[in-house]
Amino acid sequence: MDYEIRFLGGHFEITYTGEAGLDGFDSVFRDLTSHESWKAGSAVLNDYRAVDFSRLKSYAKMEALAEIIYRYREKLGRMRVADIFSEDEMRTYAKLEKTIRGYHGYEFDYYSTDDPEKAMFWLKRRA
Fold this sequence. Notes:
There is one protein chain. The chain is about 40% helix and about 30% strand. By secondary structure, it is α/β, with parallel strands linked by helices. Strands 1-2-3-4-5 form a five-stranded mixed β-sheet, sandwiched between helices. It is globular.
């Protein structure tokens, strides 16, 4: 999986391409939390529209991904994350989100391919 991390003033945007794998997500979290502009609790927009998630569509793989996120929990802090997926991928991850939520304390939401503006609005809104 390839990715590009950009800091755009008030938030990070990460654009992903290729085939998703656990090693790729570990690399993303490592690079994100070591970025010169990263602060625990930052806002992140993940754009997964060009990613093939076929290798991660099992409960065991999602649990392994949740474990990776858990290892970075102190550096990530209580960040706010908006994820943009294709319609098919969004349905898959909506079913598995409880696994991930159980491992970290940050707030996140899912958006479909045609809702990037809604994702950005939600991301910038602070409770």
